[in-house]
Amino acid sequence: MRAHFVLSEIGVGLRRNLTMTFAVIVSVALSLALLGGALLARKQVNSMEDYWYDRVEVSIFLCNEIDAETDPACSRGPATEEQRDEIEAELRELALVQEVYHETAEEAYEHYQEQQRDSPFASVVTPEQMQESLRVKLTDPTKYEVISSAFAGREGVQSVTDQRSLLENLFNLLNGVNIAAVGLMMLMLVVAVLLIVNTVRVSAFSRRRETGIMRLVGASSFYIQLPFILEATIAGLLGAVFACLLLLGVYLGIDSFLAERIPVIDFVGWDAVLSVLPYVLVTGIAMPALAAFFALYKYLKV
């Protein structure tokens, strides 16, 4: 009998406040979709960092004849074969170094021509202008400074560069976008909570006669609050379901469209998306229930 009464009260409440309930569902859906999107964006950035940082190299560029005439760092002349072999031998002795590859000036010229074949400068550059280099793969790319401090300024070394620095701006931008998404998500969650609180209080006010009778017959505070809490929970659950469908739809578009056209980005898989959905559903259930409980705690207190 009690369960039937609670269910009937839920139906009455949802019908009476249909417009506000719909607003709650939409706001919860949008805020939770942003929550899921922020979690996936964090996973995507971490995945890209692991993917690209694992492939970055430290490049030690050696002085050539042109550098010896124009670059103060090469004022002592172009790098000799002995200097190159000495540097390479020292690199191989470091536990931090995973692999060392020697790129000749001719190989550098071929790579440049391949990469810049559509550029008008490709026909102007000559092999003599290219530098030979030692490409160093580290076991820990964050330890670039160890290589830089050990070999920068050495005789025969023109410069030491780290590809990791080229990626920092990209990842800083992605992290900034993620922070902005989290901020927008927090704002939407606040809006959703305020809507839930107002909807529950309007519903309680419209049924103040029924709740007054329940107080007179000795019903507990929780029993009086239960229909309102369940109304908010149902609205939140519907919003969470719509948010999950939205996330699945967006990722389906990314997986079928962007992944094929941007192969250089290692997009997160379906396992990452599915791992986020439980958090969205739990938040969609818990947030409205807690908001309704605290909104009514004093209002319906016996």
UniProtKB/TrEMBL annotation:
<feature type="transmembrane region" description="Helical">
    <location>
        <begin position="222"/>
        <end position="252"/>
    </location>
</feature>
<comment type="similarity">
    <text>Belongs to the ABC-4 integral membrane protein family. FtsX subfamily.</text>
</comment>
<feature type="domain" description="FtsX extracellular">
    <location>
        <begin position="56"/>
        <end position="160"/>
    </location>
</feature>
<feature type="domain" description="ABC3 transporter permease C-terminal">
    <location>
        <begin position="184"/>
        <end position="301"/>
    </location>
</feature>
<keyword id="KW-0472">Membrane</keyword>
<dbReference type="InterPro" id="IPR004513">
    <property type="entry name" value="FtsX"/>
</dbReference>
<dbReference type="InterPro" id="IPR047929">
    <property type="entry name" value="FtsX_actino"/>
</dbReference>
<keyword id="KW-0812">Transmembrane</keyword>
<keyword id="KW-1133">Transmembrane helix</keyword>
<dbReference type="Pfam" id="PF02687">
    <property type="entry name" value="FtsX"/>
</dbReference>
<dbReference type="GO" id="GO:0005886">
    <property type="term" value="C:plasma membrane"/>
</dbReference>
<comment type="function">
    <text>Part of the ABC transporter FtsEX involved in cellular division.</text>
</comment>
<dbReference type="InterPro" id="IPR040690">
    <property type="entry name" value="FtsX_ECD"/>
</dbReference>
<feature type="transmembrane region" description="Helical">
    <location>
        <begin position="272"/>
        <end position="297"/>
    </location>
</feature>
<keyword id="KW-1003">Cell membrane</keyword>
<feature type="transmembrane region" description="Helical">
    <location>
        <begin position="179"/>
        <end position="201"/>
    </location>
</feature>
<keyword id="KW-0132">Cell division</keyword>
<comment type="subunit">
    <text>Forms a membrane-associated complex with FtsE.</text>
</comment>
<keyword id="KW-0131">Cell cycle</keyword>
<dbReference type="GO" id="GO:0051301">
    <property type="term" value="P:cell division"/>
</dbReference>
<dbReference type="InterPro" id="IPR003838">
    <property type="entry name" value="ABC3_permease_C"/>
</dbReference>
<feature type="transmembrane region" description="Helical">
    <location>
        <begin position="21"/>
        <end position="41"/>
    </location>
</feature>
<dbReference type="Pfam" id="PF18075">
    <property type="entry name" value="FtsX_ECD"/>
</dbReference>
<protein>
    <recommendedName>
        <fullName>Cell division protein FtsX</fullName>
    </recommendedName>
</protein>
